[in-house]
Design goal:
The protein has three domains: about 400 residues, no CATH class; about 80 residues, Alpha-Beta Plaits (2-Layer Sandwich); about 90 residues, Alpha-Beta Plaits. Strands 1, 2, 3, 4, 5, 6, 7, 8 and 9 form a nine-stranded antiparallel β-sheet that branches. Helices cover about 55% and strands about 10% of the residues. The two termini are about 30 Å apart. The protein is of the alpha+beta class.
Length: about 600
């Protein structure tokens, strides 16, 4: 092993550790490694920037715009709501909802599908006394399964396609992956409707949180001079035996009183930190002399006149808010909204609201103006999963909605028949959307997730370093040495498992970029068709079911569903094994 190979390998290990321990946003971690490779001379400027001109990466950018344009008018959402309303039984509802959801995710971006349908599912469940936790993980998994069916189903497929073109290979056709994706999706959905459904948690009985559309939030209230129980005990003030609410800490100047005893005296200026149901927190504000700290100039009372709304938002794994406290992030001035409370997967956060350091998956209960959802529903910082009081504002132009769907179908046909490449067809679709005034240039810019593109482009540059230094060949030889005596099937399982582990621990696109050069080298060494290895890597990089951090859609439903990390392992591990076995067996017989 040469010094350059050791250097690149050490950087890769450091990058994996940085992503795993969330030292910074994933795109910044990977971009930093790319800069180090450039400054150290391992990569030339052209090689480092090659990812920014990669066809797959640029196609992903257009995919964001096309998916945003199709979903802008809310036609898909309206059709799904009507479709779901006609179902009554539990099993029928799952089938009616998740089969078409998987079909939609084969042609649209998974993330906005899950963001849009999460509040729809929650409301439907609440109306029928069903725990939303039984439906939200399946929602995420169904979109992931659907995304493996087509070339545009997920950004990972497009990244692998772009890399194949860079290698001088043919690349995927529109339905290349469908040979594997459709059987895997069918088997996966059957599992979710049967065994997986029994493994899903039922949080309806836990303080009836889901029935009340509430999770255990953190909230802060300040004691003013108007409080009628100053210098009297917590019990005398009626703050000990509150239904669904618990006083966990009192902050008095620089002093923190925790645990809070029933005999602790309440003083003016005290900051009371509560954890519990938001409905009870709202009721508590009615006590004279207790002021809810929202970090903004608007209050809960204004909900009555319709000038404000309660909004539930989930912090993104790509958010610029990560590793900052709410106060440091200047949340109020940036978004003109106040954070009433924070929920973090059953974890009790012992801090005032303004001092809470945000993490991916945190649920924020926001008090905001009625235009907040419209302004920030495409924010990279958080996913707006439900406006709790007012529905999201949608452009109800049915004509434009159908026109955008027709353009999407026309694009799919031109790619399937080979008339245009995916990149050219998407570029044409974007131009048609703009000329037909379906979207404006400003909206097109907002639809693009530039941090995701930076991550992909940077990862592609690192992939060049892995190939250039010979590290890909060295790793491929090592893996072949272990698996080759057991046969080709064992080699395919090894590649799948390694790719899938990377996906669960870091990000899907980075996993694909790291593993594809290794897979190509293994195919070359075995004198086999590289397309089979590319399909294995594309499917494995997308099939993230075991952790909430491996795929954005898993993270979106993490907080709203009230899930724990172990819920994903319990439900997702059998699904992951089913998809792996199905995929490897089909790929083995089709491509080899």
């Amino acid at each position: 092993m040469s010094f350059e190979m050791m250097f690149v390998l050490s950087l890769l290990l450091a990058m994996l550790a940085g992503l795993l321990f969330e030292v910074a946003r994933p795109d910044m971690v990977i971009f930093s490694v790319l800069v180090i490779l450039l400054l150290s001379g391992v990569l030339t400027v052209d090689e480092a920037l090659s990812g920014f001109s990669n066809e797959g990466m640029l196609t992903v950018a257009l995919l964001f715009i096309v998916a945003g344009a199709v979903q802008k008018n809310g036609l898909v959402d309206q059709l799904m709501q009507k479709w779901l309303q006609n179902s009554n039984t539990y099993t029928e509802s799952m089938v009616r909802f998740f089969v078409p959801t998987s079909a939609f995710s084969a042609f649209l971006n998974n993330t906005p599908i899950v963001v849009t349908f999460t509040p729809i599912i929650k409301k439907w469940c609440e109306d029928r006394g069903i725990a939303p936790s039984k439906f939200l993980i399946p929602l995420s998994y169904a979109t992931i399964l659907g995304g493996t069916i087509t070339l545009m189903g997920t950004s990972t497929n497009l990244v692998v396609h772009g890399l194949l073109l860079d290698f001088g290979l043919e690349g995927f056709s529109f339905f290349t992956l469908a040979v594997v994706g459709i059987p895997a999706a069918v088997i996966g959905l059957i599992y979710l409707f049967t065994i997986g459904n029994k493994l899903l948690p039922d949080h309806k009985g836990f303080s009836r949180k889901m029935v009340e559309d509430s999770k255990e939030y953190m909230a802060e209230m300040q004691v003013t001079r108007a409080f009628g129980y100053l210098n009297r005990s917590v019990r005398q003030a009626g703050l000990r035996d509150l239904k669904g609410l618990y006083l966990i800490e009192i902050i008095r100047g620089d002093e923190r009183i925790s645990p809070v005893k029933s005999t602790t005296l309440i003083q003016v200026g005290d900051r009371l930190i509560f954890t519990g149901l938001i409905s009870t927190i709202a009721d508590l504000q009615k006590k004279k002399g207790l002021q809810l700290e929202t970090g903004t100039y608007i209050g809960l009372d204004e909900l009555r006149d319709g000038s404000t709304s309660l909004v539930d938002a989930v912090v993104s794994d790509q958010s610029s808010l990560l590793s900052k406290s709410i106060k440091q992030a200047q949340f109020r001035s940036r978004y003109d909204a106040g954070v009433i409370a924070v929920h973090r997967h059953h974890e009790r956060i012992r801090s005032k609201v303004g001092d809470i350091v945000l993490k991916p998956g945190d649920s924020l209960l926001l008090l905001a103006g009625t235009d907040f959802v419209k302004k920030h529903q495409r924010s990279n910082d958080f996913f707006v999963v439900s406006p709790l009081d007012t529905p999201a504002t949608l452009n109800q132009s049915t004509t434009k909605g159908w026109f955008s769907i027709i353009v999407l179908l026309a694009m799919i046909i031109t790619v399937t028949l080979g008339w245009l490449s995916m990149f050219k067809a998407m570029a044409l679709a974007v131009m048609v959307f703009w000329l037909a005034k379906i979207i404006t240039p400003g909206e097109a810019r907002d639809y693009v997730h530039f941090n995701v593109l930076l991550l992909i482009a940077s990862a592609l540059g690192i992939g060049v370093a892995i190939r250039k230094t010979g590290l890909a060949e060295w790793i491929a030889d090592g893996l072949l040495g272990l698996a080759e005596p057991l046969g080709l099937m064992a080699i395919l399982f090894t590649v799948y498992i390694l790719t899938n582990v990377f996906t669960e621990l870091i990000t899907n696109s980075a996993a694909a970029v790291i593993m594809l050069p290794i897979g190509i080298e293994m195919a070359r060494a075995l004198s086999l068709e590289p397309m089979g290895f590319a399909v294995v890597i594309a499917i494995a990089a997308s099939a993230s079911f075991i952790t909430p951090i491996g795929y954005q859609t898993n993270l979106i439903v993490y907080g709203p569903g009230g899930y724990t990390f172990s819920d994903y392992v319990k439900v997702g591990l059998p699904l992951s094994l089913l998809v792996m076995v199905t995929s490897v067996l089909i790929i083995y017989h089709v491509w080899f």
